[in-house]
Amino acid sequence: MTENHIYDLIAAHVAEITADVDHGPITRSSMLSPLGMDSIGRAELIARMLEELSITAPAYEFHQANDLGELAAIFASKIKERQKSA
């Protein structure tokens, strides 16, 4: 799975989670807070992505991401780590 595909999944989940929030377009450089994602929304996003990508990792490992592009990169690196250990 490519980082671009992972980003698309993240963007779709963000749009769904924040459907009732008026915000601008969702881009790779979008930060979660301006999109209306509070800590509960962030936790839901990470949980959804971990499940969808079949990744087992602590949620705190994804908190270092500053924007959606960085978050996609972290998920992509977790997939690569899983593939190497398989």
TrEMBL record:
Domain Carrier: 1-79
Protein's UniProt name: Carrier domain-containing protein
